[in-house]
Structures are given as structure tokens and as C-alpha cells.
Amino acid sequence: MIVSLIISVYKRADFLEKVLASVLHQSRMPEEVIICEDGQSSEIRQIVQHWGPRLSTSVLHITQEDIGNRKTLCVNKGIAKASGDYIVTIDGDCVLHKDFIVQHILHSDVNHFLTGRRVELSEKASELLTSDQIERGYLNGTPVALFLDAITGDTHHLGRFFMTPKFLRRILTQNEIHDIRGCNFSVHKEHLVAVNGYNNEFSGAYGEDSDLEYRLRNLGLKMKSVKGAAIQYHLWHKEQMHDPENQEKLKETLQKKIIEAPNGLKEATLKN
To answer: How far apart are CA 60 and CA 18, in angstroms?
Structure first.
């Protein structure tokens, strides 16, 4: 299996540095890392230039003009360029446990797409977690400061810190999951091609993942959980605005049982 890791990024070079430091420690490196930047930041470019040669894998940096939230378009451009037959996607504010990639591989099969969840770090914990710490392997053991903040502070989802043994997953209901998160998602590339990738018409920070989920289901695939397996930590930031028009697009996908995005992966290759 050839794995392409796609990282969607918008500004926040400081976040991306932490994410790439965690990619450096993966127990199974992806064959390529594709950084899909919805913008053209010089700070992001410098981070990529610094970390890219250190990752011991192919690194591609895709950019586009910043004229509003066009994450779906940028990610589609990354999917189109991906040489891997298996795609793992994360966001540029999600730091990875060392076994994140390998867990997606171990749970993958041709009949499912995978999705997990994340530890929601507080503002304080996000500041305490530095790229230097991550590079030194801080997350490879027990991240005590983050763990304590989950007990006494504002970090949420304490149970998501831990890798769950297979025999406990059902007992702890970790095999159950109700929707996908593009920050912790994987699928065979052929299936993304079959549904024409993400819908480029979605904007803002809501609905684009659900739309893709519905269309993959309409294709005949089922969803599988990697909660308690593919562990990641979300760096705190203010929430983005939701576009209310996205809800209408979701309704249309459900009602018409749409499989192919009307404006998606194929169209992304034609746009700047």
C-alpha cells in the first residue's frame, strides 16, 4: 500500500510546524506528504522548506490564492496530485500520535472508509505543547502536562489519549461512530475518484466532510471507526464561521442520493 498524507492548511505556520514535527516521528512514514495550503503564506513556505527535507519522504506543497475559504478545492488539488493508492487526510491544526498512520493502514479495507476523533486541547495546553517537545518525542510516551490539563483544565476527551486494546473497543463503544471528520480520515484513492472528491462548492467550516461521507455511502461503502487507535491532538483556536448554504447542499445530496460531486476533483485540476 502506498500512502499519501494530505494536510490541509490555512495560515498558522506555528501549528503546521507542530504537525510536521509529529509526522517526523511516525512509526510508519507515508510515502508522500502533500501540504494543501488555502493561501500563499511566506511563513508556511518557510516551514515547509525547513521540515520537508527532514521527513525522509516525498513532500509536495500546493498553494492557491487566498480569496475566502476554499479548503475543498485545495484538498482536491492534493488528491489529484497524490501518487498513493491510499489517502489519509488531516488538518494543519492536528498533531499526531506516532502510530497514527499505521493504525489507519491496519484498519483499512476495500469496503470501508475510516474516521476517528481527536483530543481537544485547551488554549493553555496548545501553547505548552511546542514543536521542540514533539520533535524530542514528548507525545511518544505519556504527555503528562496535557493529561493533567484534561483532568483539571479545559482539555476535553481524556479517553482519547489512550490506545485501546482490540478486545475493549466494543465494550467502550469505540467501534461506533456517527460521522466523518476530515481531520482524521482515510480512504482508497479509487473511491475518492469514483465520487469526484470533495464538493468545491462548500465554503466555511461546515458540511464538506458530511457531504463526502454521504456520497461514499451512496457508492456502497461503509464507515469504520478508528477511535482509540488513530490518536491525534487538536490545537486550540477560535471556531470558524459556518456557511448556512452548506446545509441546503447536504440536503440535496441526501435527497437525490448523489454519488459524484457536481464540482469536485475533476474540476479542481482546471482551476487556479
So the answer is: 18
pLDDT surpassing 60 at residue 272: no
Contact 153, 124 (CB under 8 A): yes
Fold for 3-268, please state it: Spore Coat Polysaccharide Biosynthesis Protein SpsA; Chain A (3.90.550)
> Nearest Cα to 83, choosing from 26, 144, 4, 139?
4
Which tens digits make up the pLDDT trace of 213-230? 999 999 999 999 999 999
Spatial distance between the Cα atoms of 145 and 220, rounded to a whole number of angstroms: 43
Q: Tell me how far apart the alpha carbons of residues 187 and 174 are, in angstroms, rounded to a whole number.
A: 19
Encoded amino acid at 2, one letter: I
- For residue 196, the one-letter residue type is N
Q: Which residues pair with 95 in a beta bridge?
A: 233
What average pLDDT does the segment 55-60 reach? 94
Query: DSSP H helical segments within the chain, as ranges?
Result: 13-24, 42-51, 71-81, 100-107, 123-128, 131-135, 144-152, 166-169, 189-194, 208-219, 245-256, 265-268
Model-level pTM?
Answer: 0.94
How far, in whole angstroms, is CA 233 from its chain's centroid?
11
- The pLDDT of residue 159 is 78
What's the grid cell of residue 7? 494536510
In terms of DSSP bridges, do strands 58-63 and 185-188 run parallel, antiparallel, or are they unpaired? unpaired
Q: Are β-strands 185-188 and 112-115 bridged in parallel, bridged antiparallel, or unpaired? A: antiparallel
Q: For 147, phi and psi rounded to 5 degrees? A: -60, -45
pLDDT of 242:
67
Q: Which conformational region is residue 239 in: left (phi greater than 0), alpha (psi within -120 to 50 degrees), or beta?
A: beta
The answer to whether 199 and 208 are in contact (CB under 8 A) is: yes
Q: What is d(CA 198, CA 179) in angstroms, rounded to the nearest whole number? A: 15
Between CA 135 and CA 132 the distance in angstroms is 5
Q: Parse the chain into domains and list their residue ranges.
A: 3-268
- C-alpha cell belonging to residue 127: 501553547
